[in-house]
Amino acid sequence: MYIFFQSTRVAFIDYKKGDVVNFIKILQSKIDDLLPKTFVTDCFPLGVTGELNDVVFGEEVIHEHICRRLYFKPYLNKIRVNLKWESVYACEALDRFQLDFFKIHSKEIENINLSSPAHLSSIQEVDGSWLIVHSGPKEEVLKLIDFAKKQAVKIDKKPLFKVVTFADIDGAISTNDLIPLFIKAERIFIGGGFNLIHETESFRSKTIALPFKRKYDNQVLRIKRAYSP
Asked: What number is the average pLDDT over the span 219-225?
């Protein structure tokens, strides 16, 4: 999704899988209309499909990038334009191909610390629930639920399970306000995605992370680093 901010309006442009050509046309039209001064990309420097290769920007546009670690070598095949980023903000240690690329194609790389507030781990309001948090897809949420239930059986426990997801799961909670749920949960089960690994930092001792396979995201390595002493 691309979001354009102006003083009087905000424009959202969402990508529908398999409709790249039309998406590029809509994106180009919006750029021509709004004439952004700064263009910030998140995670994928030229879009997840490489769609920004085919978008024309004015020479005065400042490009910035917020990145997390990717399997960057295969993604390099999607880059066809010689773009220069003004600033790159690294939210975790980068893949060596990723780091080498941005050393050449950006003016500066700044490391960003997204640590959670330390005081959260000291709050004692546990209600005994076991929390399962994953945005989707549905198959992965079900896998996390099954994993959590098997963990309960192993220790002969019957906890109250709470599922937080935007996938179509009966009885699930759909919310982005996770901290109160993290505080009250006895155990937390998540995938190895960037957001939840960082959001549960203050609750690491009661959180279990299960990696899922992604084309450009090494969740096994992220979990290993998060749980290293």
From this structure: 94
Whether 123 and 219 map to the same domain: the answer is: yes
Sheet with 129-133, edge to edge strand ranges: 161-164, 129-133, 185-190, 207-209
The pTM of the full predicted model, rounded to 2 decimals, is 0.84
Long-range contacts of 211-216 (CB under 8 A, 24+ apart): 212/140, 215/71, 215/74, 216/44, 216/70, 216/71, 216/72, 216/74, 216/75
Q: Tell me whether strands 2-5 and 10-13 are parallel, antiparallel or unpaired.
A: antiparallel
Quick one: which H or E segment has residue 63? strand 62-67
Which among 111, 145, 171 is the end of a domain? 111
- Reference 163, options 202, 183, 190; nearest CA is 190
Distance of CA 94 to CAs 47, 66, 72, 108, 218, Å?
18, 12, 9, 14, 11
Which segments of the chain does DSSP mark as H helices, in order?
20-34, 72-75, 96-105, 138-154, 179-184, 194-199, 219-226
pLDDT band at 23 (very low <50, low <70, confident <90, very high): confident
List residues bridging with 10 in a β-sheet.
5
Question: How many domains would you assign to the chain?
Answer: 2
**Which of 48, 82, 111 lies at the terminal end of a domain, its last residue?**
111
Rounded to 5°, angle at Cα 226 from 216 and 68: 35
